Amino acid sequence: MAEQYGRTGGTVVAAGLTACVCLLASGCTGGAAAEDARPADPVRTLHRAADTLVDAGTSKARTSMEMATGGTRVTIRGEGVYDYTRQRGRLKVMLPQDPSGQSEHRPITELLAPGALYMKNRGAGVPADKWVRVDTSTLSDGNLVTGGATDPYAAAEVLRGTRTAQYVGRTEIAGTEVNHYRGTADLAQAARTASPGGRASLAAAAKGFATAEVPFDVFLDDEGRIRKVRHRFSFVNGRQQATVAVASTTLLYDFGAPVDVRLPPEEDIYAGRIAEE
Fold first, then answer.
1. CA pair distance 191, 199, nearest whole angstrom
2. Whole-structure pTM value
3. Distance CA 144, CA 164 (A)
4. pLDDT per residue over 56-66, tens digit each?
């Protein structure tokens, strides 16, 4: 699969990644007790979800991004850890297989930081021991899609822009009882109320996506922590000028896990031209 990253004009295009994106909803359990635990104002509850992750400190994360294009559905998966207090994370991202079933790409290691995305094993002429650094505020999607995985904290900060939401009911994810909400967030509103590190990227996404409205389903545990969030983004394919729908799912678990994410030194960042594959 062809893949291209370019930094000319402050824009990065990931053609390989953009060639790629069961809600767990059951009846309420626990009867009246579960209903009594239902928050009175879902919108305010979701506005606080990102802050609740900061209070939680750290977690492990799994990501999935699905895209259907040209009759083909492609999925990119990632797994790693995240430190919400420092807004830093590390993911190993698995790109899709080629049609023969053989792996087409080595896993890409991604480091996530406020305003920046670092990638290793990028290929396309980048030395194996070097990192590629991308300024996420220059991306038309704010790196909600480009990296093949949505930054877990950015996924939470999108909920700061929640305009409408409803409580769906109680269900279970990986053995944990959770509250399911469904709603729509506005990226422009999310950018205005985001943390300083995430504000520019969300503002770029609000301008760059086909629509700033983002439908979502999110599942919070009884401490208000996100256990699963699924966003549906829409962007315009630059080559075909067609609107593409992307479903990005983030699973968070093992809160309090040890996380040590160190960003690469300047001498390890590739400064040359990134070739097309």
1. 5
2. 0.82
3. 21
4. 999 999 999 99
